[in-house]
Amino acid sequence: MQRNKRIPLCLALCAALLLTLLASCGGKSNPTGTGTDVPRTTTEATGKETETDAPEPAAGIAIAANGEVKYRMVYPDDSGAMFQALGDELADLVKTLVGTRPAVQRESIAERSERPSVYIGFCRATERAGLIDGVPYNGYRMAEKDGNLYLVASVSDALTAAGNRFKRLLRAGAKDGSITVTVEAQSYTVSSKAEKIPALDAALTVYGYDTGEESYQMVFPNAQRSDFDAYCALLTEKGYTLREQRSVQGLDYAAYGKDADMLFVTLSCGELRVQYDPLSACWTDSTPAAKVCETTGYLMGVWGGGDYENGMAMFYLLSDGTFLVFDGGHNSSDADNLYGHLRDIATENGIAEVRISAWVVTHFHGDHVGAFEPFVAKYSDYVTIDRAVFGVTSSEQGTAATNGNSLVSTAQAAMQRYQPNAAVVRLHTGQQLTLGDMTLEVLYTASDLAIGSLNDYNDASMVMRLTVNGKTVLMTGDAATATWNLLAKKYGSYLKSDFLQVPHHGAKGGGTVEAYRLIAPDELFWPAGENLFQYVRYTENIEPCKYLTDTVTAEKIHLAGVNGRLTSFRFR
Q1: Is the Cβ–Cβ distance between 491 and 521 less than 8 Å?
Q2: Tens digit of each residue's pLDDT (9 = 90 or more) over 14-32
Q3: How far apart are CA 423 and CA 396, in angstroms?
C-alpha cells in the first residue's frame, strides 16, 4: 500500500513540471506573427482612447532615458496624413512625459540615418520585418523586432486604436525622465466600416478613412490598371453585381452592388480608391422620360443685403417637366424667389405640378444652402422633392471638413420632417446619371482629395458636368484651388465645357488659370452681383478672373445680379 501512494505523487510532480515547461514556451511570441507562434488576437470595440486596463510598467525597451529620447517616429511616404498626425501625437506625449520631443520623419528621410524607430502604418521597414501579412483592414498589430517598434495598421479606426494602446504603454512606462515599454507581438481587431470593403491580395500599400456618415474609403497608392481590373474581378468573385462601368480620359470607374451595400471603384492619378456606402444613401437609378418641354437653364440672383453679393442659385427645367436645382441662396427671401420662379415657369409650360427631381447642394456654406430649409419648410405642400443630394464629409478628411456640419443637420432634419418620402443621397466620382434628356456626370467629390487635405471647406464642393444636345455646363459650386489642381492633373483636356459656372463667385482662392485654359468655356454664368464682379475683377484684379474676362466676350458673361433677377439659357 505504501508503494501505491508514491505513484500518484510522482505523476503529479511530472504533470506540474510539464505545465511549467509549456507555460515557458507559450510566453515566447514570434515577433513576425508568422510560423508556429502566431500573435494572439483580441478585440477592441472602438478606436477611442481609454485609461482602463493600462499595462503595468516592465523592463523592456527604453524609449527615453534620463530625459534623452532614443527613438523617433517614422511614417510611410505614400500614405495619408493620419499616419504623420499619429506620429506627432506620440511625439508630443513623449515630450510631455520626459521634456524632449522625438523627431517625426517620413520614411524616405528616416532611411538616410540609422536610429531606433517606432514605425507607424505600412512602412517598407514593416514589410521587411515580415509584420504586414495577416493584418486585416479592421485590425492592427503591435510588435518589437531588432530593437524597432511597429504599429501596423492601415485604416483610421485601427490606427487610432493602435495609437491609444501605445499611448497607454508610454504613460505606464514613464518615470523620472525615462520611458520603458514592453511590447509583445500581438494582433487586435476593431469595429470598423472597413469591414465592408473586401481586401485586395496584392503587394500594395493601403490606408482607409471615414468619408462622412456611413461612407468609408480605402486608398491604394501607386496602383495600375491591372490592380483596378484585379479588384473588379475580386468583387465579381465575391458575389457583387456590376451596376455601372466607364472609362474616360484620366479616370477608370466601376460601381458594384451586393444586398444593401454599394462599392464605387476608381483608378486615377495612380491611386485605386474603393468607397463604401449603403445602397440607401446612393443615387444609382436614371430616369429618362418622355419630352414635354425644352430643357432650359436659369441663373438666379440671390440676396444682395450682405457686404458682398455672393451666394448661388441655379436651376434647370428638364425635358420631362421636372426641375433640377443647385444650391438656392442665403435665406427665406431667396427661398421665396426660387419658389416663385419654379411655379411661374411650370405654369408657363403647362406643367401642373412643381416637382424637383433632384436638389443638389454643392457644399454647405450658408450663401449656398441657407435657403434650403426655409424653402422645404414653407413650400413642401406645393412642391415634391424626389431626392436631395448632399456631399457629407468627416473630420478625418481635413481641418475644414466639418465646417458645414450644422447646416447638414438642419437640411437633413428638414427633409425628414417635410419631405419624408424623398431620398437623401450622395454621389461619387465617375457616376453618370440621366434626368429627362440631361446627362449628369460626376467629376469630383471631396473624397477624391488626399486624406487630411480638405483644409478649405470650399473644396468640399461637388463638381459635375451636365450635357444636353451635345452642349455642356460645368457646375462647380465654390470649388477651390486644391480641387482645380487635382482636376487639371486628373482630366486634362477632358475638362473642356461649353458653359462654366464660375467657381467661388470669381473670388480669390477659386479657379486657376490652368484649369480655365483646359475648360476653355464659350460662355460664363457668374454667381455674383455687379458690385462683387467689379471688386474681384478690377479692384483685386484676380488673375484667374482676368483670364476669363480676357478670353470670353462681354456679351457671353452673365452675372446673376441680386434679389431674384433671372437669366435663362438653352442648350443650343
Answers
A1: no
A2: 444 333 433 443 333 333 3
A3: 26
Q: Which of 390, 378, 368, 366 is nearest to 419 (CA)?
A: 378
The amino acid present at 460, given as its one-letter code, is: A
Cell numbers 458682398: residue: 308
CB–CB of 475/464 below 8 Å? yes
pTM for the model stands at: 0.85
- The β-bridge relationship of strands 251-258 and 186-190 is unpaired
What percentage of the chain carries pLDDT values higher than 90? 77
Which H or E run contains 140? strand 139-145
Burial 279-295 (b: 16+ CB within 10 A, else e): eebbbbeeeeeeeebeb
pLDDT in tens, 135-151: 888 899 999 999 999 99
The answer to whether 316 touches 295, Cβ cutoff 8 Å, is: yes
Residues 402 and 454: their CA atoms lie apart, in Å, by 10
- DSSP 8-state assignment for residue 562: B
Structure-block grid coordinates of residue 77: 511616404
* Helices 405-418, 372-379: crossing angle, 10 deg rounding: 10
- Dist. CA 282–CA 276, nearest whole Å: 10
Is-contact 304 563, C-beta < 8 A?
Answer: yes
Q: Give the three cell numbers for residue 387.
A: 431626392
Listed in sequence order, the DSSP H helices in 370-467 are 372-379, 405-418
Cell 534623452, residue located: 68
Q: What distance in Å separates the CA atoms of residue 107 and residue 126, rounded to the nearest whole number?
A: 11
Q: Quick check: 326 and 357 in contact, CB under 8 A?
A: no
Burial class (CB in 10 A: 0-12, 13-18, 19+), 114: exposed
State the DSSP H helix or E strand holding residue 499, giving kind and residue range, or none if neither: strand 499-501
Selection from 160, 172, 165 nearest residue 149 by Cα: 165
- Mind listing the pLDDT tens digit for each residue in 480-496? 999 999 999 999 999 99
All three cell numbers of 514, joined, read 490652368
DSSP state of 38: P
User: Strand 566-570 and strand 296-300: pairing?
Assistant: antiparallel
**Whether the Cβ atoms of residue 250 and residue 490 lie closer than 8 Å to each other:** yes
pLDDT recorded at residue 25: 39
Query: What are 95's three cell numbers?
Result: 515630450
In the chain the domains, ranked by start, together with CATH numbers, are: 28-191 (3.30.379.10), 194-281 (3.30.160), 296-570 (3.60.15.10)
> How many angstroms separate the CA atoms of 267 and 144, rounded?
35
DSSP string, 344-383: HHHHHTT-SSEEEEEEEES---HHHHTTHHHHHHHHTTTE
Contacts (Cβ under 8 Å, ≥6 apart) of 17? none
All three cell numbers of 132, joined, read 504586414
The strand pairing partners of 355, in sequence order, are 384
